[in-house]
Amino acid sequence: MTKLIELDDEHKLCMFYEKHMATEVAADALGEEWKGYVVRISGRNDKQHFPMKQGILTHSRVHLLLKDDVRQYVVRKPLNKEGKKPRTKAPKIQHLVTPRVLQHKHQCIALKKQQIKKNKEEAAEYAQLLAKRMKEAKEKHQKQIVKRYTRLMYPEAVI
């Protein structure tokens, strides 16, 4: 059974602070009518009225949470300064070049090349069609000029 409780008293509300969603909490601190009850936190709004939700909500965050930490396998660059303790420096995770990153890069380049090739073919095809139509229009125009010329020069021939 779900029951919505609105609490304004900070002393009663503090028992829910630092608790996660779906946590079961003894409700004795809420008052005499709640003695012996155990309530489960199913949701709430924080002070800025943003809803608190269970879980990570996106597939990409699941992927991020399940990934191993690769920083321990990264080649570190030694930084030795005179009179200082020797230390090392490693690149940021997003700068690491992995086979997956390379595959994605090659795939994007191949897609661009394919698109360029397709655009060139379509442009050539369109240019041919345009030239054909221009030629037809020019011929039609020439015929009209000849027809007009013959009508003006030889009016008795046209019946």
TrEMBL record:
- SMART domains annotated for this entry? Ribosomal_S6e (SM01405)
The Gene Ontology biological process terms listed for this entry are:
translation
Listed GO MF terms: structural constituent of ribosome
The answer on whether this UniProt entry bears the keyword Transcription reads no
Cellular component, GO annotation: ribonucleoprotein complex; ribosome
Q: Which UniProt keywords apply?
A: Ribonucleoprotein, Ribosomal protein
Protein family (similarity comment): Belongs to the eukaryotic ribosomal protein eS6 family.
Which PANTHER family does the record match to this protein? Answer: 40S RIBOSOMAL PROTEIN S6
Q: Would you tell me the protein name for this molecule?
A: Small ribosomal subunit protein eS6
Tell me what organism the protein belongs to. Neotoma lepida
Q: What is the lineage of its organism?
A: Eukaryota, Metazoa, Chordata, Craniata, Vertebrata
